Structure formats: C-alpha cells, structure tokens
Amino acid sequence: MFRIGFPPKFTLPRRCFHNSAPRTSWLFRSQTTSVPAIYKARKESWMKPTMILVGIMPFFTFGLGVWQLKRLKWKINLIDELEEKLQLQPLSLPPNINLSVVEEFVFRRVIVRGKWDNAHTMLFSPRVYNGVHGFHVVTPLVRENGSTVLVDRGFVSRDCISSANWLAETGEVEVLGMLRTSQPRNLFTPNNDPAHGKWYWTDVETMAEYAGGKAAGVQPVFVEQIFEGHAGEANTKLDKGLPIGRNPTIDLRNSHLSYVITWQVQSVK
Ligand SMILES: *[C@@H]1O[C@H](CO)[C@@H](O)[C@H](O)[C@H]1NC(C)=O
Ligand SMILES: *[C@@H]1O[C@H](CO)[C@@H](O)[C@H](O)[C@H]1NC(C)=O
C-alpha cells in the first residue's frame, strides 16, 4: 500500500500506545472517568500502532512531495540560470586556469587553441548517437604558452573507429566548446581502466593524470566540443568517422517532477 517502509529494526515503541493506564491516561484524561468501559476499549483498539501509521502516512508522504517540489523549483531555476550562461559570449580560456573557479563557469562556451596530443586519446564507450553505437573521442589539447586541457571532440561510430580519421588534424586548431566537470557515473558504470584503454565515464582527474598530469602541464579541465552544423553535415562526419560534437544545450535530467507526482499520489491514497 505504501512504498516507503521503516527499516526492519524499527519497531514502534509499544509502550507509547499500549493500554497500560498510567501511560495512556494523558490522552484520555478528560474522558476516562465518564465513558463506559466498552467505549473505552474501542477507543484503545483504534490507537493500535498500525492505525496510527496509516493516519500519519498521508502527512508524511505529502511532506516528501513538498520537499521534492522545492527541489524541482530549485532545479528549474538552475536550468534557467545555465541557459542564460550558455547565451553569453564564449570565453577565451586563460593560459593557466584557476581550478577553484571552474565550477562557476560550467556550461559557459569557451574557445581554446592548440594542437592535439593524439597519443593520449581516450575512447569512451558505450556511446550512442541517433541510434548508432560508437565512442566519444577525448584528446588532450596542448596550448602554446598555456596548460593542456581535455577536449571531448564528440561521437565516432563503432564502424569508423579503427579508421582513426580524426588523427588527420595535426596543425593548430581552434575549438569552440562548453566547459564541463566530471559527470557522475551511475550504479552500473564500471570504473575506468586507463591501463587497458577502457574509458566509461568522464572522471576528469583520472583523465588528466593519464594525459601526463601536472608534470606535463595538464590541468583537469574538461571541454566538450560544440557542433552546430545541420543534419547533412553531421551525416557526412558520421560517414567519414570524424567526431561530431555536442549540441549547445543543457542536459540535466529533470527527474524531480516524477518524484513529486509519486509522493503526492501516495499521500492521497
Ligand atoms: C583562484 O580563485 C580564488 C577564488 O576567486 C581566489 O581566491 C584565488 O586567489 C585564485 N587563485 C589564483 C592563483 O589566482
Ligand atoms: C608564446 O610565447 C612566445 C614567446 O613569448 C610568443 O612569441 C608566442 O606568440 C606565444 N604564443 C601564443 C599563442 O601566445
């Protein structure tokens, strides 16, 4: 009937509800003297712990619903704020990035210039693009007079991955991207295994270490390249095995709404 339960160890402290006169008397103090014995017994059976739980549950679940609603509002505000951020002019990333302010600039468009360090390319799988299975290609970008940062260049299909056509870009490139941080992995995402070239989730610290770490001037800064071309261009890239960057949109999963509905429905049952 109710989805939430108390942990197995939790038992209602029976002494609070049992009919030991001294403890319940405060509940009925005004009545116990005048009501007939039978009536009193009925009243006490109504006070059985389960019934009390049933009485409390709607308030409890409604409270959870309200809490989720607050979280939802918070999240919608956050998305608005991020959308605004996304509209701002692209920033040129400074030569050395103050890591403590990266969080503030997440979802900002940024421009970085440099040369690809193809030897340290990381292929993230499994990734899907319009139903096609493949990888995301992340390559460190070595910036002249500045730190090296990590760039997710986008999607390459499984069929094209061995062609490694993206290696063709050897000169200096300018990348328009979006600043991101590590993305939380879910319960089923295996941990990365850099030694065997297996990458599953963007753990920026580990990726920076793999690319050479501090000693090699690599900063744990992660940029996702933006692709704003039309579908035709995307298909050409897909056929050639060239990475297709991400859409410049906010993709936080807005899942609080479903929780709100669940909790509110529970509370009116
Ligand atoms: C980095 O930014 C923080 C917060 O704005 C500031 O306190 C700190 O001094 C900065 N560090 C450097 C090296 O500029
Ligand atoms: C890097 O530094 C050198 C020497 O100071 C300078 O000539 C060059 O233009 C700089 N490169 C960039 C991209 O700023």
TrEMBL record:
- Tell me one GO biological process term: mitochondrial respiratory chain complex IV assembly
Question: Which keywords does this chain's UniProt record carry?
Answer: Membrane, Mitochondrion, Mitochondrion inner membrane, Transmembrane, Transmembrane helix
**Where, subcellularly, is it found?**
Membrane; Mitochondrion inner membrane
Q: Which InterPro entries match?
A: Surf1/Shy1, Surf1/Surf4
Alphabetized CDD domains for the sequence: SURF1
Concerning Pfam families, the annotation shows:
SURF1 (PF02104)
Q: What is this protein called?
A: SURF1-like protein
Protein task:
Probably involved in the biogenesis of the COX complex.
Q: Which residues cross the membrane?
A: 50-69
- Give the UniProt family note: Belongs to the SURF1 family.
Membrane association type? Multi-pass membrane protein
Record's GO cellular component, any one? mitochondrial inner membrane
Organism of this sequence: Agrocybe pediades
Q: Return the PROSITE patterns for the record.
A: SURF1
